[in-house]
Amino acid sequence: MNYEQVIAELIRWAERNDNVRGLVMTGSASAHETHLLSDRDIEVFARDVEPLLADESWWSTLGRVLVVERTENDNGQPTRLIYFAGGKLDFTLITADELSTATYERPFTVLLDKDDQARSLRCVPAQRSLPDAESFHTCVNEAYAAALMCAKAVVRDELWPAKIRDEDLKWNLLQMIEWDHLARYGTAYDTRYHARRMNEWMDADIRTQLLGCWGHLDATDTVAALRRTVDLFARLAQRTAALCEIAPFDHDGLHEEIELILSYPARTPG
User: Fold this and answer.
1) Residue 270's pLDDT is what?
2) 23, 90: one domain
3) Is residue 99 part of a domain?
4) CA distance 260 to 191
5) How many angstroms separate the most distant Cα atoms in the chain?
6) Distance of CA 241 to the CA centre of its chain
7) Domain assignment present for 105
8) Quick one: pLDDT at residue 105?
9) Residue 94 pairs with which residues in a beta bridge?
10) CATH number of 94's domain
11) I need a surface site. Which of 93, 133, 155, 227 has the fewest CB within 10 A?
């Protein structure tokens, strides 16, 4: 997909459509960090987003559409993730009156501003927050609940459910990794989003340990990966709790319970 041509065509469409008042491109393209597989993230500001949701012809003509994800972002704004042959466009539809007050954590590019509202836009690096005791212990409890259920599933010879619970554990591990870095390097430290560009911001020793935290679809490998994941999680949780002055958790008791579960006779397949 020739993104320059596609973006130019999108701008021409927006100029003709009186409902659309502005276009802003965010993401790697605006930060000049594109890869051959990078998509383009476009915010479409419209007086009324409903017609754009009802009639999808405005993006369906930009290329050969393969897959469409119709969802919402964390702010409840409708998004359309369009997988074209040779490329991908991620659209977020936003009401036009929000254009003048929008802020961005990373570089952005104003593609169209019919009402001269984008002059006030600014880039404000995110200040992330450290966990309080409640959020910290919620993360720890969710992680260890997933670990316990993963261990039980392995012993029951339910490897797919074990992998599902392992995914829950991994999400909480990622949260703890982020908190650990913020606690040591400051809340302005950029941990990106969903572990993206982890080789740039995540400490090398943690990345090395992560190499052993995913296993194949067999019991022995899954158990080994579970133990490594729990060990890493506990180490980071202990360090984060100390730095944030949060009461410690009984990690040893949890590890003992996991090992007790794993010591039970495994269910025989069939």
Assistant:
1) 55
2) yes
3) yes
4) 36
5) 70
6) 24
7) yes
8) 82
9) 45
10) 3.30.460.10
11) 133
Q: Which two tokens stand for residue 107?
A: 């570089």
Q: Say whether both 93 and 170 belong to one domain.
A: no
Coil, strand or helix at 79: strand
Please tell me the predicted confidence (pLDDT) of residue 269: 59
Domain that holds residue 107: 3-123
Which 3 state secondary structure label does DSSP give 252? Answer: helix
Give the chain's domain count. Answer: 2
Per the domain annotation, does 268 fall within a domain?
no
Q: Read off the DSSP letter of residue 159.
A: H
* Rounded Cα–Cα distance for residues 100 and 253 (Å): 53
Is there a single domain that holds both residue 213 and residue 174? yes
| Residue 39 domain-assigned (yes or no) | yes
The CATH number of the domain where 175 resides is what?
A: 1.20.120.330
Q: What is the DSSP string of 202-234?
A: S-HHHHHHHTTS---SSHHHHHHHHHHHHHHHH
Whole-angstrom distance, CA of residue 52 vs CA of residue 33: 29
The tokens describing 223, both together, are 């158990």
Q: In tens digits, what is the pLDDT along the chain, a chain of 270 residues?
A: 898 999 999 999 999 999 999 999 988 777 667 677 778 899 999 999 999 999 999 988 899 999 999 999 988 999 999 999 999 999 999 999 999 888 888 888 999 999 998 888 887 777 789 999 999 999 999 999 999 999 999 999 999 999 999 999 999 999 999 999 999 999 989 888 787 888 889 999 999 999 999 999 999 999 999 999 999 999 999 999 999 999 999 999 999 999 999 999 987 655
Per the DSSP assignment, residues forming a β-bridge with 91 are 42, 80
Q: Which helix (H) or strand (E) holds 167?
A: helix 159-185
What pLDDT score does 74 carry?
85
What are the strands, taking DSSP E only, across the chain?
A: 20-26, 40-46, 65-72, 78-84, 87-95, 103-104, 109-113, 122-123
Q: Please check whether residues 156 and 258 belong to one and the same domain.
A: yes
Going by C-alpha positions, the residue among 95, 98, 89, 82 that lies closest to residue 25 is 89
